[in-house]
Structures are given as structure tokens and as C-alpha cells.
Protein 1
Amino acid sequence: MLDLYLALGLGFIVGYIIYKHHPIQLKLDAIFTLTVLLIVFFIGFNAGLNMHEVLAQGLTILTLSLLISLINIVFALIMAMLLRTLVVRKRG
Amino acid sequence: MNERAFILILMLTLILGLGAGVLCSSIPNRGYLNFISLTIVKISLLLLLFSVGLRYSLNPKILMNIKNTIKSGLILPLFSLLASILSGIVINLLVGLDARLSIAISVAMGWYSFIAPYVTNVAGVVYGILAFLSNLLREVFTIIIYPFIPRNIKGNAIMIGGATTMDSTLPVIVKYGGEDLGLIAIYHGSVITLIVPVLVPLIYS
């Protein structure tokens, strides 16, 4: 847990130092994309290594993923409507 | 890069990784491969968070925009967070998934590249894949659903994109919600991106 905060904080500090003393343009998008692809590949790799475990729960994972994402979106929409109602009432 | 093309590349990368993993699974004493792949995932996650910090401090405009928008739009990320926590609780009640895990997966709000390695390290690869797919699908559904949302709630409905509203779903929001929503979407996504790495380990570790 602490290592995550440290990495985030270190990024802020290093970025701030670079910004203050050496204002250069870094191509961060490429690093971002590469990191994301690396993460996704090795998660897949790890799942492949433990395929028997993943296969045993394959359909459950797919159904659950679909359900979780839809519930997340439905609740976000409900909150959007609630917020809209609250704002309209406050103005009215 | 086109957003749909990137999602396709992500899925292909996952399948490629799966294939490589299956090929290597016949190697005897493959425990070290498990260890190496999890270590790479962990290091990549740290690198990802490092570059998030770097991106914010190298571009003070983002922080200035947050500062300027915060007075008028603080409520939007708060409602997003509330929606995610509530949906995590509902998922727990509906399917019996561990409450802390379901809330953590929901609170990631579409940031699959953060939550998937985190959950893989903490709870194992099966839950890691679940975290990855459910958050990736949230992004996919946002791209599909957002254009059809009624105009009167389009502004607040950027919440459905979660953390992705600052990058991958931003073009869809601007195209179908209007250019004036662009700044709010970037602000919303930026705040969520800052909150998620702090909140998730507190919820599930």
C-alpha cells in the first residue's frame, strides 16, 4: 500500500523538480501506453499459467464482469439524475 | 490512436499474454514464472503511478483547472464516488462477492490498468481478470451508451465514464455532450485519478 503512495508522490516530486529547473517536454503518453500494454500482457500471461483456475471460473468471470460494469453504470446514471433533480430544486 | 482500436489492441494483448502463459504452463517448476510475471505487473503498476504523478506536476495547467473548477464542480466526483460505493455494496448483496473487493473494483471507476494489477497482487489472478474486464467493459459501455443519454442529464452523466473521462472517453463526451463539457470531464477524470490510488488500498489490502 505504502509503495503505491510512494510511487505517486515520487512522480509528483520528480515532475515538480523537472518543471522548475529543466522545463522540458516529456512524451508521457508513450510510457503510459507501453506500461498499460505490459500490465495487460503479464496479467494475461499469469492467467495463462494458471489456466485451470481461470477456466474453472471462466463463465462466472465473464458474467460477473458484465454485471459489475452494468451496475456501476446504472448507479452512476441514477446519481446523475438525482444530482440533476437536486440542482433543479435548489434553483427553483 | 482511435479509442476503439486501442480497446481492440488491449484485448489482443490480453489474448497474446494468455497464449504465452498457456504455452509456458507445461514447463516444470513454473512457480518462478508466476513470481516473475507478478513482479513485472507490480513494477509496471508502480511505474504507472509514478508517471501519473509526473504528468500532473509537469502540467500545472491540469491542477490550475482543477483549482478553478473545484468551487463549482466538487459535487460531481463526490457523487461518482458515492455511486461506486453503492454499486459495490449492491454487487456484494446480489452475487455474494467479498464486500471490500466488490467496492474496490467499483471504486476503480474504469481505471483497469490500476485495479487489475493491484487486485492480481492482493487477491490472485482470477479476481485480477475480473477487475480488469469489469473496468474495461465500463469504458466500452460508456462509449456505447453516452451518445444515447438524454440531453438534460448529459452534463452529470459524464460520471458513467469514471476515471476515463479525462482521456479515453473524453472525445465521445465532447462530441455528443458539447465542447463546454470538455473541461468538466477532464476535471472529473483528474480528481478521480488522484482519488482512486489512495482509496482502493484503504478499502482492500
Protein 2
Amino acid sequence: MSGLREDFREILRLVRPGARVLDVGCGEGELLELLTREKSVDGQGLEISQAGVSACLAKGLAVVQGDGDSDLDYFPTRSFDYAILSRTLQQMRDPAHVLSELLRIAEQAVVSVPNFGHWRVRWALLAKGRMPETKALPEPWWSTPNIHLCTLRDFTELCRELDLRIDACAALSNGKTARSIDPQRPIENWRSETGLFLLSRRAEPSAAPPVDLLGEALPQEITEPSAKRRRKRAGA
Amino acid sequence: MTDAAAKIAQPATGGGTMRFPAGKALRLDSGATLAPLEIAYNTYGELNADKSNAVLICHALTLDQHVASVHPTTGKLGWWTRAVGPGKPIDTNRYFVICSNVIGGCMGSTGPASIDPAAGAPYGLTFPVITIGDMVRAQAMLIEALGIKSLFAVIGGSMGGMQVLQWAADYPEKLFSAICIAGAPRHSAQNIAFHEVGRQAIMADPDWRAGAYDQAGTRPEKGLAVARMAAHITYLSEAALQRKFGRELQRDGLSWGFDADFQVESYLRHQGTSFVDRFDANSYLYITRAMDYFDLSAQYGGSLTQAFHRARMVKFCVLSFSSDWLYPTSQSREVVRALNAAGCRASFAEIESDKGHDAFLLDEPQLDATLRGFLSAQAHSRGLA
């Protein structure tokens, strides 16, 4: 499987076999086709361009022509195991809404974002005083579809605000093998070209205090598995 | 048979008329019953041993069961020869294709021109008002009579698309996949308005004789032709009309009168007069009424999502055309959103075309590719050869 896009390889690794997958902005369906072939997923695509939709349909993939900004609202809650948004979040009108919707529709979301904090981007702006054009962000400012660029730090901050848990994160850099990272580490915000995140919603706090089978109140740490992780991250 | 017809490979054609005795009456949404019931149908291709490759095609308002074979009245090729046949997107080498004339129609199925056994004369306006749901219930009776428990696919455009949606709502357990092309979940005020113009044209024709024209030995040809002319405009886009005709004249110079000066007038008149040769005025009244009454969500407590709740195992493909203003993309999108909300797997594409509503019958390579891709994938998952 050499020649495979690095983010695809990483997503392929993350996704459970046989899962229900929604690929938002699925393009011509390369990833869905790959996941269907390799992981036997039950896949559904959402794609705005007619060329992309036609290509998917000709491949026999289930795809809806629509817009991630407005059409996610119509999918029922928890109807997928994974919602994938590959290199598209920065093109959305309302990224926060889209992220929330992904994690309403699916148990987990796989989201990749180009890192505007990468040293090449910073260097281009600092040294040349021009809007950066890099491999991950190839278009000039006046024709780029990217309207909501962010750094890894910005993204993790948004996840925190939306109460989303980062279950895994990998850095993708031009041509290199994906590298598992802690996105909170400042160095990663310099050296990662693209971040790929596996996200889930933090456990909903239940109305009544949780009890065990004997009716005893449970210690907080057991009921909130994310608490430890959150403390650890805050200290990092 | 025309030369063109002779050149095209004809699929193995079968069919006939299925007769249901008075004991097997069709229960109608109005509360009435229809008996005896006859359903005229055509088949193309062969039913496989486990009867898993049957495809039902639902036809539009003025079409009929002659999908892929020469029409007995007009001598023209079947209306969907470009999509149905050996090696075509709806491949008759792989699938057993069935198409039946809707009830209320005039090509052999029980309709207002049929003899009412109680009166010994044509029904005329004593024929009960029917619905899209009634048409589908009759088709389900036919499918059952043919010994088919589950359809591999149900496919239809325009009014055929409405029947597809009705099938998914009423008989999801009998469907594997469904393709709705240029359809709508309900008739809009504009849709009803255009139909009303057509019906009033027919009823204003003195030869209509309150629907009893058969007994009177007349035919409301003028009224029916005007109805067709008005409707035909709604099937085309403004761009298509402009491209085809513009302000081109029939002859040099204007007539300074009311002859068909413009080519578009001449074209519409031809559409009208050729239509009356193959269609019955009362059938036109009844079928347009069935379409006007169509509102799938109303049948399911006002929720289109509810209509599709039992159809989660059915694989859907919904297609619309960008220049279709009769059943615009927004209506197909509403269907897709309801399908998604109901948890159904649905594909949807708006096909870029300037041909208007009729694009589904015309040369649209993207439609062909989509039908072929979707059906092949479904055939693969159903294990069809």
C-alpha cells in the first residue's frame, strides 16, 4: 500500500472493520472505496461537487450531493460510528458547528487540519511578509477555499471549548510516515504540517449521581474516565 | 416499425394482461373498490431461478408499459429504449424488467375507458378517483401474481418517481433498492395549477360530453391537445425552448394573423395533435388528479421521515436535474433529507442539464453512468450475476 495518501493510511488504521462511516467532503470517493475494500465499512459520502458525486456513484458508493455546512443537520443522532472530515474543516463556514454535528451524528470523528503554526508557514509570513503558500496550503490567498485556518493549538483549544475529547492525534508531514503526537506540546505546533485527530464527545454527565449495583455512590474517577487525562493534559 | 427501431437490438419481450377476478378487488384510498381489475404489462429479459433480479419500472403521467419495445399505436421506439435493453444501464441481460400501465390509464389497464360491468358501458366519470397509492397497490398485486416476493429495484421518473417513494413507504419489505428520478414528495400549488389548466381545457371542449364521449361517438381532441400543450411547456426549461426555437419563424415573414408563425407554436401544436392519437382524455383527468392528491407526508402524520421509517434496509438513489422547474431539486433534496433522518442509506445527485424536467428521458450521459453504477453496486451486494 505504498503510494497511499498518508492521511488515508492513518485513517485506515484507526477505523474499525465493518463500521458505519460518513465521509464529509468525500471527493471522488477514494477513501470510502479504500475503507470499503480493506475494512468492509458501511460507507456514506457527502460531497458538494457534481464531478465528485458522479465519480462516487459510478463506483457504486452511497453519496449525497450536499454541503457539510448545511446538510449535516439532517442526519440522525448516532447514525454512524465514524464521521470523517479530511482537510476540509478550514473550508467550512462554521467549523465549531460542523465539529459538534460530526460528534452528534457519529460516535467518533476523524478530522485532519493543516497546521497554520507549522514553521514553514510562520517563516513565509515572518520573512517574506506574504500569505504562505506551502505543500499543505498550495493556493494563493485570493483563490484559496480555506477561510478558517488554524494552528494545532487553536484546534485543541476549540475541542476543549466544545468539550470534545482527543482520543488520538497524529502528525502528518509531507511524505513522511504518520507520527503519533501530543498536540498540546508546543514543539508539535512548529513541526507538524497537518494534524489528524480522533475525537469523541466527553461522557454526558448524568442527572442522578452514578451508583453501583449496591446503590453506593461511585468514586468520581470511575464515572469520568476523561478526568485524569484532562488533568494530565492541563499539566503538560 | 421505423428504421430506427429496426436497428436497435430488441430485448426479449413478454407480458400481457393480468386479470384479477371480482373476488380480488383493488381496495382504493377513497374507500371504493375496483373490480374486476386488469393490469396490462410488459416484461423484458428473463426472471432468474430464485426470482431475485426483477426490476419494476414505474411510468410517468402520459407514458405506458412500452418501455423498451415498439409502441403499438405510434410505431415508435419504447420511451426508455436508451436506458433499458441489452447492455444498457438497466441491463435486460441481467435484470428482469417489468413495467405495467397504471390503473386509470388507457393502454390496457383498467381505467375510465374500460367497461363498467355494472353498467355494461364505459366507466367515464363513474370511474372512482384513484391515487398514486392505488397505482402502487395494483402493481404490488401484479408482482405477487407473477410470483415475485422481492423486487431487486423499483425505478421511476416524474410520476414514476412518486410511485417509487410510495413503494418505499408502503412495501419496503418487498424492495431491495429504489431509484427516484425527477420526482417529488408531493404536488405543489404550481403543479396543481398547471394540471387544473389542462383539465379545464378538456372539460371545456364540447366534445367531452361530461366524460361520456365514447357513447356520444365524439372525442375531446381539441381540449386534450391544449392540455398537452400547456403541460409540455412545463416539461422543458426556458433555456431548452430558447435554444431549440428562439424566435424562429415557420415561413418567411409574419402572417399578420393567428397561424403558427413561430416554430415554437408549430412544435406545441404538433405535440398536442399527436398526443390525442395515443391518449384518452378521461385518463388524463384521472391521472393528473392522482398526482395532485399525492402528498406522501400527509399519509404519515405530516412527517416525510415517518413515511420512510420502515425502509431502512432499502438502498435509495435520488436524482434531480438542475433546470427542472416542475419538480425542482429542492423537492428531491427534501426526500433525501427525510431518508437520511429516517436512517436510510441514500445517494443523491443533482444532474447538471439545461433540458428541464424531460431530461430524464433524453440523452444525459451522466444519468446513464449513475444508473449503471448504482444498479451494478446493488446487483453485486444482492449477489446477482
